[in-house]
Design a protein that fits this description.
heterodimer; A: mainly alpha; 4-stranded mixed β-sheet; 4 strands; 67% helix; elongated; B: 2 domains
Chain lengths: 369, 320
């Protein structure tokens, strides 16, 4: 108890650090919300229309009305488009060959779409948008042709109807808020714990603590409890801002969410303890937590899906607790499902937390050497 | 083991592993500190004082030998020791972002001091250390001397039978140093505490009942300060020559001069017969046109004795 009080006093006295811990996650949330837009639209586009007929113009209009392409310039040929992409004037180009209308009649018209591959998001969005526009155009043409030949076609033979569950409007915020909350929670938990122990070691105050009858277990708990509270406050602020500012709906059971968050925080704190046993200075500890943060952003499914990752990379991400928690958070937050659907991840997370705690308790040094 | 032995070590060895083999910081130390004594472990920086203290306290693992406090083994009964011993680390090791009072309360809680006991003891200790006016100040904002006093209060809060102090007057001004030593003296007189103190300051050695001189991880002399000083044979004479460099080389070769030490612009000579050699040296130097000022016999202080004992030790090591 005395240790918890001591840690709390120290934590509260260091106002600037406390402010950073509590405010920074919100800043990051707003950054992600307004700066990171994962679907790219309004791609600046150059068009080389060598047909200059009604058909080609309709196609270009269709591209523009899709919202993904903004025609910025009209040029003569493909070479000029490549030059414009190289110079960074545009990020996409459309080449319409001569006699477009005639080829369309014959049914073998081709449009060349050039995309700036240096930005993979542009390619993804541009590619799918161009394909979609081309398909819908040819559908229309088919309907027209069939009508001209005297037949009637009320509907197309296959009409794909995609129904996106849980996030109907494909709002990025729904994807980002739960994940970001989970990631920042992990970061604060690991960072705070590792730092507070390594700092004691760096300042030498650990010596005066070790000479008291405090057991290592007590020392660990004393470090963890205030950090659990601080990280929870941080998490809560993100979740609340997410819900009330960005209008992200919370579908699931808040209590279940709370308990599992606690479980996750404990595994994060354990990871922090572990970090503190293998590092000597705050700088080293900082480096390790930064690495963990980077790996978490890239590998756990926070931004990039895990499915296409190679086995080795997946194995690495299996070692990060966020991998499991991010699935849990999205399941509860966005899908509103209960424990029956996520029990596997919950069990893994619990085992993970227990193992990390045991390892760090065993390796926690009772002596100075 | 005798009942009144408080701290004891037998052939205590501590080796540190480094990238280039190992370093033996403590090399077979034997110490016996009796109850109620103020024992001083005296030696230069890097002699192994801190390491010895930490091993005895169980903060470091010993490589070989035995060590115990109050009959509790340093390694096996670590927690029994921690409940009964107070310790002040060499550097200021209290949380600097907590106030004086918060620090004292924290250590009282951690040591399991009851609230009743705490209420009685804290004002007493604050008064004793002269910190009563500073209870609300952050520990990190205290002066060097006051930090040490706070550390002393924190290490005494659980009424230990032994306190171990690692260079408690490091970075403390002479006035505060004197005050601190007076506090230690009072503690011993009023509470019968056994005090184990490490220090590089030879003048502080004179304030201890028993001292051990430590050099390169070995105890080179042990006993009362008077006994240790008597271990150096010969009498000490002091003077300042008019030509320092030449005088140093001249006197070293003279008959009856056992050892030459320089002390500022003065020479300290250990000689076999003070009265006789005093005259001879004066004559010999006068023959070379060097005059001697203020030549007199002085009682050897710990400093001269220590330097002499270290030289002896070095010679012994060279001969081996």
């Amino acid at each position: 108890m005395a240790l918890i009080k001591k840690e709390t006093i120290q934590l509260l006295r260091d106002r600037s650090t406390l402010a950073i811990i509590l405010v920074l996650p919100l800043v990051e949330l707003f950054l992600f919300a307004y700066a990171v837009d994962m679907t790219v639209d309004h791609i600046p586009t150059a068009v080389a229309n060598m047909s200059l007929d009604a058909r080609s113009q309709t196609f270009i209009d269709a591209l523009e009305t899709s919202g993904y392409f903004d025609v910025e310039m009209y040029v003569e040929d493909e070479a000029r488009i490549i030059q414009a992409i190289d110079e960074g004037e545009v990020r996409a180009g459309v080449v319409i060959p001569p006699n477009f209308a005639a080829r369309v009649e014959r049914g073998n018209a081709q449009v060349l779409v050039l995309l700036d591959g240096s930005d993979s998001f542009t390619v993804q969005s541009g590619y799918s948008a161009a394909v979609a526009v081309a398909q819908s155009q040819s559908m229309k043409l088919m309907v027209e042709q069939v009508a001209q030949k005297g037949g009637s076609l009320d509907s197309l033979p296959i009409d794909s109807s995609v129904n996106i569950l849980y996030n109907a409007s494909m709002d990025d915020m729904l994807f980002i808020v739960p994940g970001l909350a989970a990631m920042l929670l992990q970061f604060t938990a690991v960072n705070l714990t590792a730092m507070s122990i390594v700092r004691e070691r760096e300042l030498g105050t650990i010596e005066q603590l070790l000479i008291t009858p405090i057991r290592p277990m007590e020392l660990m708990v004393g470090k963890m409890v205030p950090n659990i509270i601080i990280s929870s406050v941080g998490l809560l602020s993100i979740v609340l801002v997410g819900i009330f500012w960005f209008g992200v709906p919370f579908q699931g059971d808040p209590w279940l969410f709370g308990w599992l968050t606690l479980l996750f925080t404990v595994s994060g704190l354990g990871l922090g303890l572990l970090t503190s046993t293998i590092t000597q200075t705050q700088r080293q500890a900082q480096q390790i937590t930064m690495l963990l943060m980077l790996l978490s952003m890239l590998l756990t499914g926070f931004i990039y899906p895990r499915a296409p990752m190679p086995a080795f990379v997946k194995a690495v991400s299996d070692l990060i607790p966020l991998t499991y928690f991010i699935r849990i958070v999205r399941a509860i937050f966005t899908k509103g499902v209960g424990l029956t659907f996520i029990w596997r991840d919950v069990v893994i997370l619990a085992i993970y937390g227990a193992v990390v705690m045991v390892i760090s308790a065993v390796t926690f040094k009772k002596r100075l050497d | 083991m005798a009942d009144n032995i408080t701290i004891s070590t037998q052939n205590l060895v501590k080796r540190f592993k480094t990238r280039r083999g190992g370093v033996t910081a403590v090399n077979g130390i034997n110490l016996q500190v009796r109850r109620g004594e103020t024992f001083g472990l005296i030696g230069p920086d890097g002699a192994g004082k801190t390491t010895t203290t930490r091993v005895i306290l169980g903060l470091l693992k010993r490589t070989a030998g035995e060590s115990s406090i109050l009959g509790y083994d340093s390694m096996r009964d670590t927690y029994a020791i921690r409940e009964r011993v107070g310790y002040i680390a060499q550097q200021f090791a209290l949380p600097g972002d907590m106030t004086v009072m918060e620090n004292i309360r924290f250590f009282a809680r951690v040591q399991g001091v009851s609230r009743v006991k705490e209420r009685q003891l804290v004002p007493e200790l604050l008064e004793f250390a002269g910190l009563t006016r500073f209870t609300k100040r952050l520990a990190g904002h205290l002066s060097g001397g006051m930090k040490k006093k706070l550390a002393l209060v924190c290490s005494l809060i659980h009424e230990p039978q032994v306190v171990m102090l690692d260079e408690p007057t490091l970075g403390v001004d002479p006035v505060s140093r004197r005050e601190f030593w007076n506090l230690l003296g009072n503690l011993r007189a009023e509470r019968g505490l056994t005090i184990f103190v490490c220090t590089p300051y030879m003048d502080e050695a004179e304030r201890c009942n028993q001292i051990g001189l430590i050099y390169k991880g070995e105890i080179i002399a042990c006993g009362t300060p008077q006994a240790v000083k008597k271990m150096v044979p010969g009498r000490l004479i002091e003077f300042s020559p008019s030509n320092f460099e030449r005088a140093v080389s001249l006197v070293a070769g003279l008959e009856g001069v056992l050892e030459v030490q320089t002390y500022g612009m003065m020479l300290h000579l250990f000689v076999d017969d003070a009265a006789r050699r005093q005259r001879e040296i004066e004559t010999a130097l006068a023959a070379q046109g060097i005059s001697c000022e203020g030549m007199r016999e002085i009682p050897p202080r710990m400093e001269e004795s220590f330097i002499s004992l270290v030289r002896r030790q070095e010679e012994k090591a060279r001969q081996r």
